Input
Amino acid sequence: MKVTIPIGPQHPALKEPISIRLSIDGEIITGADLRLGYNHRGIEKLAETKNYTQNIYLVERICGICSHSHTTCYVQGVEKLMGLEVPKRGLYIRTLIAELERVHSHLLWLGVAGHEAGFDTFFMYTWRDREVVMDMLEIISGNRVHYAMNTFGGVRRDITDMQKKKMLDLLDLLRKRTAYYLSIGSTEPTFVARITGVGKLPPEKAVSLCAVGPVLRASGIPRDVRKDDPYAAYADVPFDVCTFDTCDVLARVVVRVRELVESYRIIEYLLLNLPAGEISVKAPRKVPAGEVVSRYEAPRGENIHFIKSNDTDKPERLKVRAPTLANYPATLEMLKNSFIADVPLIFAAIDPCICCAERMVELNSRGGAREVVSMSQLRKMADAFYKKAGLKKKAGTWPL
Amino acid sequence: MNEQSLMEEMQKALGTKVAEAASAGPRRIFVRVEPGDLFATVKYLRDRFNFTHLSTITGVDRTDAFELLYHLANENCILTVRTRISRTEPVIPSLTPVIPGAVLYEREIQDMFGIKVEGIPDSRPLLWSDDWPEGNYPLRKDWTFERRPENIPGEGQ
Output
């Protein structure tokens, strides 16, 4: 007998709304289907109505974790269209924020992976250390989530020597902790037993289904936009592309922990070799007609923006493809022939960011002026509203 | 292999199929083909130059026609295949036999532009909500959003 069970759009195992429908045979998944669109916000359409500078702030809000990846991708594309030469120091600071963001995203993910595998101590440890890197981001940008560092022609804040010293100290701490996580992640017997062989994705499937980022590298394919298509300061920085070849969740853990170590190397190099000079140049308001493809290696994989300009101060078209969308077909492949109990783990292992992947439905907010209302007053208003509403009378038009 | 030699070899192999090929800066190539030649071009690029990765498909409404841009990547560069289809009868062949990972992008194009992708293995709407009205394609330039009147019980009786 064929049974289909829905997981989501609202489900305890998912942090954001997405709907997976699983066909099962006993405990084994025979097929998986995906339904998107629960979080679509119309950003691509909205971007056509806003000017280039406003769009920096718009694309920053595509994602709450890899916010810098979207702004950098967008900004470097527009800079190319404007023909701007960004000063070296600006590029270095941009890259520094990008790597700090990768560290905080990977530490967050490691915690989630530990949590999904039933290893909550690991979750507590990594999230405690994630605070360290959040502090580092706050030292530079003043913000913990949306750093608002990028602008056309460079970055908006400089780094002082004091900040540099403090960051290097904090980096030492992170290094020590990460070495410990690598030893846990790859040797702790219960954890390794839980994640080995789960969510297999053979390399040829990973390539044909166009997977990106750590998911692709965990299948042994050394693709990394930072190496293949160097942007910002990556051409100057020595680092290795991390791969692992067991093609399962274990590989995805190992790849991400190794990438953390590489990120520390990059951050240290950038801080120690920060060139002197300006951090930004002045940018024009209008952008000459043209089109550009901009790529960026976000923590979750390749992020690509296509920008088409038409000689005005607003883009003609801004196309955004966030890495999570590219990893969905591969995820469905991983889910096939695994157990139902592995679904949260497999799904978490692509590090899904659903709000990133979806950008296109209407907001239903009613807008209008804001005012401050006390709790007791709010309660009175609510009582009055429901008395007036006459819910029973209108049951037909308002089924809930 | 640099961009110049790649373009030369491609033009030699595909001949008149490639209407236009230009390099826009390092590691960026733009190629224009007719919709009928799209499939063959992508297949050749995948087999000969290892363009196995389709980054995404961008649709642009040029008001007189739809332009579709297929961003293909290999380890050296990103090659954009551009094609134009008529706005009155928008049909494009599916790339899924060559690149299975294209399916979500093709479904997105169907939802957002109302372009029919022929031969797509799964043609259900990807992003629309269940009550999305027929014939609304948000990324067409002539589509504007009109907020539906809200029906809130107790208000405006």
